[in-house]
Amino acid sequence: AKQEGRNTFRLYSTHMDIREHRWLAMETALRNAIDNGEGLSLHYQPLVDRDSQRLCSLEALARWYHPEFGQVSPGDFIPLAERSGLILPLSRYLMQQVAARLRAWLDAGLTPVPVAVNLSAQQFWQQDLIEQIRALYDEYQLPPGLINFELTESMLLDKQQQAVRVLQQLRQLGCRVAMDDFGTGYSSLSYLHQLPITTLKIDRSFIQQLGENQGSETILAAITGMAQGLKLTVVAEGVETEEQLNTLRRYHVNLIQGYLTGRPMPAEQITERYLAVARE
Ligand code: C2E
Ligand code: CA
Ligand code: CA
Ligand code: CA
C-alpha cells in the first residue's frame, strides 16, 4: 500500500509539473498574442427579440487561436489572464476591437445594434474604467449607448455600495448593464433592486433544464416575475430548442440568445446576415 501510495504521488506530481508547464507556456503565448494582436479575435452572438426574432443587440465573445495550443476556450484563457495580470491589457485590446468594429459598421452606412462586453472583476474595479470608456467613445466617435456591459454577481460581493457608484457612472455614459449568469452563485434577490442595472440574463443551466425538470420552470417563473416587477429586461441565454423557446413564451422574457437563434460568429457574418439585410 505504501509502495502504491508513493507511485501515486509520483504520477500525480509529474502530472502537475506538466500542467504547470503548459500553463506557463500558455501565459507567455497569451502575453505575446496581446502584444501583437495575433490569434485574438471576437465573435458576436445575436440577442433577438423573443417574438419578432429581430436582432436587438450582440454579445462580444473573445476567441484565441494559437498554432501550438489550437483554439483555446475563453473558459480557459480568461481565468488564465485573470491569474497572470493579463486581463487588463487583454480587455483593453478587446474593447478597442469592439469600438473599431462599431465604427466600421457606421462608416459602411449600416445601423449597428449595441454590443455588450463582458467585464471581469479586475476591470470593473479599475480606477479609470469610466475614463477608458469615455476615451473610446471619443476616439471612435460613437453615439452613446452602443457599448453595453455584462457583469456577474460575484464581482460585487461585499462591495455593494461602491458597486452602485460604478454602475451609476456606467449608466450616466448611456451604457446598459446586464447581470450575467443570473440564478447561479450568490443570487441575493433582495439586493438586486438596489443595483442600477437594466438587464437580467438567466443562466443557461436553467434554460437547458426546462422540460426536463419541474424545478427549473418554477425558478424561471420566480426570476421573471421579479424582473418584471423591477422593470428589468430579461434575456434567456443558451436557448437551443423550440421547446425551450415555447416555454419561455409563457413568462416575462424579452430577448433570446442561444444556438437556436444564432451562434457566436465573426463580425463579417453579422454584417451579411443581419445588418446589410436590414438596410434593404
Ligand atoms: P458567458 O458570458 O456566460 O457567455 C455565454 C457563453 O455561452 C459563450 O461561451 C457562448 O458561446 C455560450 N453559448 C451561447 N449560446 C449557447 C447555447 O445555446 N448553448 C450552449 N451550450 N452555449 C451557448 P464562450 O464564448 O465559450 O465564453 C465562455 C465565457 O468566457 C463567457 O461566458 C464569459 O464568462 C467568458 N468570456 C468570453 N469572452 C470574454 C471577454 O471578452 N471578456 C471576459 N471578461 N470574459 C469573456
Ligand atoms: Ca456574458
Ligand atoms: Ca452568461
Ligand atoms: Ca458564464
From TrEMBL:
TM region(s), chain numbering: none
Annotated ranges, domain EAL: 23-278
Tree of life domain: Bacteria
Protein's UniProt name: Diguanylate cyclase
Naturally occurring in which organism (per UniProt): Oceanisphaera sediminis
Lineage: Bacteria, Pseudomonadati, Pseudomonadota, Gammaproteobacteria, Aeromonadales
Interval of the full protein contained in this chain: 508 to 787 of 795
